[in-house]
Structures are given as C-alpha cells and as structure tokens.
Amino acid sequence: MEKNTILSSEQITQDLLPKKFGKIGLIWTTTLVIICLIGAYAYFRQLKYGLAVTNMRDYVSWGIYISNFVFFVAISLVGSLITAIFRIAKVKWATPLTRIAEIIAVSAIVFASLIIIVDMGRPERFMNLFLHGRIQSPIMWDVIVIATYFCISLLLLYLPLLPDLKILIRFKEKTTNSLYKLYRFQGSFWKGTREQFKISEKSINVLCITIIPVAFCIHTVTSWLFATTYRPGWDSTNFGAYFISGAFLVGAGGVVVAMYVFRKYYKLEKYITELHFENMGRIVVLLALLYLYFNVNEYLVPAFKMKKSEEAHLASLFTGDFAPMFWFAILVGMILPIIILLFKKGRKPFPMFIAGVMIVVGAWFKRYLIVTPTLLHPFLPMQEVPANFHHYFPSWEEWAIAMGSLAGALLVITFFARIYPIIPIQETITEQHEEQEHQ
Amino acid sequence: MENTDKSRREFLISGLMATAALAGCGENNNPFAPDQEVKLTGEKVKLLSVNGEIIEIDKAFLKPVPDLPTLSNSEERKGIPGKKFAMVIDLSRCKNLKKCQSACNHMHFVHPGQSWIKVLSMQDSEQSSPYWQPTTCMHCDEPPCVKVCPVDATFKRQDGIVAIDSDRCVGCRFCMAACPYSTRVFNWDAPEMPEEVAKQHYSCETSVPQKKGTVGKCDFCPDMVRKGALPHCVSACPNGVFLFGDINEDSVTNGAETFRFSDLIKDKAGYRLMEDLGTKPSVYYLPPVSRNFPYETGVENQNPDDLHHH
After folding, report:
1. CB B22 within 8 A of CB B57
2. Is residue A385 part of a domain?
3. Which among A49, A50, A383 has the least Cβ separation from residue B303?
4. B-contacting residues of A 382-421, CB under 8 Å?
5. Average pLDDT per run of 10 along chain A, which is 439 residues long?
6. Does the beta carbon of B241 lie under 8 angstroms from any beta carbon of chain A?
7. pLDDT at A395
8. Which member of A244, A362, B169, B236 lies 3.0 to 4.6 Å from B153 by CB, making a disulfide possible if both were Cys?
9. Is pLDDT at B65 greater than 80 in this prediction?
10. CATH code, domain carrying A73
11. CB atoms A59 and B150 under 8 Å
C-alpha cells in the first residue's frame, strides 16, 4: 500500500468483490473458449487417428506437447516463490500478489498434467502408472511430486480464501444464486473465530515450508526427464538448477503480466501500486540474470570443448536451423528484459508489462529449444527412414492442442477472478489496520 | 480347406491336437468335442496317439486350432532359462543387401517406412573409409530404456533379451529418448497387417501384433530360438553377416558356420557400440577389415534420402 492512502474496510470490500464480465471480459472469455474448443476437436482427431496426426516421428518423438508441459511446470513454480518464500522471508508488500501467483500455479499444474496425458500414445492405459508403476522411472517421480505440489498449491489457494468467502457470503445481494451456493458450500463452516484463524495461520505456515522443497522437486524432476538420458544437450549436471532458475523467471514474468492486466481491467491501482511493479521489477531482473548465468554454463562450456556428439546440436542452435529461435529466446527472453528493468523508468507498470510478455513468450520458445533440437541430433546417423522423419514442425492439431491448453489455463484464471476476489480482501483490510496503527 | 502350405500345416497341427485330446479324455467331458453334431464325411485320417498307437478318426472331427496356446506373460517376461543370448555382426561381410531388414519387417509386420533393423552408412572420420553397419537393438545388460520405463512395459529377461509388452505400454516414448542407439520405433498409426494376425494375442516373444500408440523394436526373435531356429535376420542374410548364439555355450552361428564366441571376438577384435556409455550391449561388431565387398557395391541399395549423407 502506498503510505499516504488509508482505505476503509467498506471501500476495500467494495473495490475487491468479484465483478461480472464487462464487454471486454466477454470477448476475452469467448475467444478463449473458442480456442479451447478447437483444441478439443484436434484432440478428438488425435484419439481417433492416433499420434499419426502429429508431426512427431521416430527421431523427434517428443514435440511441443512436451515443451508445453515443461513450460506449464515452470510457470507453476511461481506460486511457491510469491506465496511461500516471500511469506517465510516476511516480505509484506507481496500480499496482494499471493492469490494471483497461486491461481497461476494451480491452473498451470493442472494443464501440465493434462498435456502429458495428451502426449501419451495410450491415454486409456493411464491407470497402468498405478497398477504397474516402477519407482525407478523419473516419470513416476514426476507423477508423485506433481500430485503433491497440486494438493499443497490448492490448499494454499483455499485456506487464505476462507475469510474472503465469509465476506462473499455476507454480500449475498451482490452475487448470483448459484455462486452464493458455491460460496456456502466451500466456506460456510468458517466463522472467523480466533481459534479458526490460529489453525488456519498454522496450516498455511506448514504448507509454505513444505511447498518449497516440493516445488524444487517438481522442476528438478522435470529436468531429469531429459538429464537422465545420454543425449547431447540433455546430458548435463547443470539441468536441475538451470530449469529452476528459468522457472522462477517465467513465473515472475507471468505474475507481472497478470498484475498489469488485473490492475487495468478491475481498476486496482490502489491495491497493485507502482511500488509493487518496482519491487517485482527488481526481482525479475535478478531472476533473469540468474537464468542467463545458467544459460552461459549450459551452452558455452560444451561449446568450448565441442565434443563430437554435441557439435551438430550446438551448431544448429548457434548458427543453424534453430538459430533465429535460439537468439530470439536469449535476447527477448532474457537480455532485453534485463536492460529494460535495470532502469527505474523500465520498472513502471507498462514497460514492466512488455518485459513480462517478452519473458513469457521467450520462455515458451526456450522450452521448445530444449526439447526438439536434441532429438534431431542422435548419436547414430538418421538414415533408413522416410524423408519427413528428418525434420519437425508441429501439425495443426499439435498447435491447436497446445494453444488450447494455454487458453484453458487462462480460462481457469479468468473464471477464478470472476468468482473469487483476485486480491485477498480480508488480508488487505488487516494490513490497512496495521498500517493505521503504525501512523 | 484350400490346398495351400498354410492349410496343410493347420491340418497337421489340428490333427495332432485332436489325437491328444481323444487319447487323454473320456467321452463325456471331451474339451475338443465339436460344438455341433458332426456329420461324418466317411473319409478317415490316420494319426499317431500319445501312446504310440496309430489310430484312425473321421476327418470331420478335425478342428483347426486358431491360436495355439502360447506362453504365459510371466514366462515371456522371465525368458529362456540358462541362456544368455548374444549377436555378432561381421561388418567385413555386409554389402547393404538389406535382406535382414526386409525379413524382419515382413515377419513382424513393421509399418512401411519404418524398420527395426537399419543398415547405416557409417564413416568414423573424414579420412577413414565408409562401411555398412546393420544396427539392431543392442539388448543392453544395463538398458537405459528399461530404467526409464514407468510401467515395466519394457524389461530385461534372464536370457539377456530386452523385450516389450505392447499390451502394457502407455506410449510415453521415454524409452525412445533414453536409447542412445535410436533403435526404437513408435506405432504412430495403426499398424498394417492381415486381419487374422491383428486378432492374435500379443506375445512379447513374437512382438506381434504391433499395436497403435505403443513402441516396437528388435526382439532377437525368442520365438524362433525356442523352436531351435535362428532369428529372421540371421537366416535371411545370404552373406552370413549375423551370428547368433548363447554366451553360456560360447558359440555363435549364422546357420552355415559356427564359431567359438570368445575366440571370434578375440581374434577379430570384436567391439560394442558406445562402450563409454556403460550400457553393455549384447551385440558385438567385427570391424570392417579385409572386406568381402567394397563399400560401393551397397550404394545402389541405399535409401535415396540418405545418399547426400557423406
């Protein structure tokens, strides 16, 4: 909160209660629904005709589904950063951002799980993972930690929501009947007693501590899906840290974009202030420098040695077929945001928004570059296969499904903001009171 | 029945089955008794009973057995007791005829365009001379594919064979990413095969029928080995490139010649691919020295897409 403005509880509640979609909101939601439906139709085709509808083949056996999966897991890590790490470090200013971060985390992790099922050749055998699961496979580790992370994230979204649900129930006249029923179902047991607050506070603290190692696990294990193989470009001990730093960067970038959009659309200038952008800007710059550092390690050390197996892979990234995308991801995803955010003027809301979009888009392509080029550079020469096995560009079905999943994640966030207050009401009121007492 | 080789074989097999059944069971609970009332043809067939007597039954009692009882899944996963299979591929004999490939693809109904054996045109460095390298599954003793499989759909058997259970595979393709030899292929489409083959129960030993959405690869043909025959690639190669055998017996054969495995590897400096990765393959290569054919004789057979390779 900016120091000079102290808001009344009524004002805060008034400002932060969820609102019906306006015209822009309706257009936005309809567009997302249409993209999702196209994705669903493409998936229907894939179920019918098999993975043959994709352009993946025996060499490039993982494509944008997997890179999209890595992207989702990465962006979901931000929930633990903003909620847990900041909470434990007693970073007070981040309170209004916790729910934004947490809903991004939950919706991203849901779509990460969905997209991995989409990638399966035999999705109807999903239960085999539990019937015949073998703990030595990194995929099983991923199943375990992602399920755990999802549960903790959901609780970290739900528990702080309880006091707000009480407020939502109180303002019955401001909502529809079905939503009111939903609020009652989810939160009618919450009376807001001192005892309940104590339990809730304690649970949130425990969850915040547990989610940090789990968050590190989900992305480290995801990096191990690649690093446990021998392939050039994946066979790296740097991979866990490299993935985690990249994940925090894209997640923080995503939060910045969401902050800007919610602030503008719901007119939350009093709650998401320029100070929040300033602080997030400093964090993003630090994370981008960290990620850049790991990228230098990841690419320059092998490039110095130029082992035969790495040579073709690195050449394709630096100067070959993937060079435009590679340099786009490095420049737009890291270097330009760093330059923008190093300046005080760059940490204003709009330039921050631009930098955030650059980071997120750059990160999406970066994940593609991690997955595909490696598969096009196997140890033994690519021969004795049809010509189209030598290249990979996603089919329209793959694009539709990948874009559909991204739209789906945005849709979950959009509906969440329609149903629940995107800025915690109760916590904001409490902080305002504390502020008042200080003055 | 038509007068083809296949129907004759079916006829003989079913005859044997019928005899065994008649000799072993009483009239009342005969499991091989025809479902409907049989109209006798009057034509008799002589059969050898399990007791060694020659008996005669009416042809009408003979019933073809569509899918002979196969091994159980757990037997297929265990492998052939006491065996440790290995293959030696003699590069000095290969001229890219690809008979191995076509026999393998034919017998396993591999999707057109894909193959389980690839004959790669290799050249180790600019100055060294190119050679043809048939590449099968390496049946590693430390198989990276088995390590990463989340559902035990690909597994290592006691006899050294790495096999796939296509009824269990979830199609995640982690094994394909993990295999450094790029030996695994995926059934992106429904595999093409005659309907009666597609209807069969999947066997981890024949790897047939391949199924849509699952991974396939060279299986060392344990079904042939159980019959005392050689894998299809070995018997298809006219130049004797492939030698197959049991390390415990220390012998490998291509059908025409048999060698002591340890002597062959020692005398001809046998090696394995990517030894540095620690995968411990079961496939050994003999270097392309004193070749039977010049490299060039194989070029006409090369896949046109690969010609630009060198």
Report:
1. yes
2. no
3. A383
4. 382-387, 390
5. 66 90 95 98 96 96 97 92 86 89 95 97 96 96 96 95 94 90 94 94 94 94 96 95 96 95 93 94 96 96 93 96 97 97 96 97 97 96 94 97 98 96 92 79
6. no
7. 97
8. B169
9. no
10. 1.20.1630.10
11. no
CB pairs under 8 A between A and B: 148
* pLDDT of res. B68: 56
**Inter-chain contact A384–B306, Cβ cutoff 8 Å?**
yes
Task: Please answer whether residues A65 and A115 qualify as being in contact, where contact means their C-beta atoms are separated by less than 8 angstroms.
Answer: yes
More confident residue, B310 or A393: A393
CA angle A268, A274, A278 (to 5 degrees): 135
Q: Tell whether B249 is within 8 A of chain A (Cβ).
A: no
**A54 within domain boundaries:** yes
On chain B, the residues whose CB falls within 8 A of the CB of A379 are 180-182, 274
- Is the model's pLDDT at B63 over the cut of 80? no
Residue spans of the domains in chain B: they are: 5-61, 74-305
Question: Residue B294: how many CA atoms within 13 Å on its side-chain side?
Answer: 3
Q: Residue A345: which domain range?
A: 9-377+391-433
Whether A134 is covered by a domain: the verdict is yes
Q: Name the maximum alpha-carbon separation found in chain A.
A: 77
pLDDT value at residue B61: 80
Q: Note whether A229 contacts B178, CB cutoff 8 Å.
A: yes
What is the domain count for chain A?
A: 1
- Tell me if A417 sits within 8 A of A164, measured CB to CB: no
Given an 8 Å threshold on Cβ–Cβ distance, is B177 in contact with A226?
Answer: yes
pLDDT for res B226: 92
Residue range B83-97: average pLDDT? 97
Does residue A220 lie within any of the structural domains? yes
Residue positions counted in chain B: 310
CA distance A247 to A68: 13
What pLDDT score does B5 carry? Answer: 53
pLDDT at residue B60 tops 90 = no
HSE, CB side, 13 Å, CA atoms: give it for residue A322.
26
Tell the CATH topology of B74-305: Alpha-Beta Plaits (3.30.70)
pLDDT at A2: 45
B151 at the A interface (CB within 8 A)? yes
End-to-end CA distance of chain B: 54
- ipTM of this model? 0.92
Residues of chain B neighbouring A119 (CB-CB closer than 8 A): 172-173
Token readout for B88 is 């030696």
Q: What is the DSSP string of A241-307?
A: HHHHHHHHHHHHHHHHHHHHHHHHHTT-TTTS-HHHHHHHHHHHHHHHHHHHHHHHHHHHHHHHH--
**B209 prior amide bond cis, ω within 30:** yes
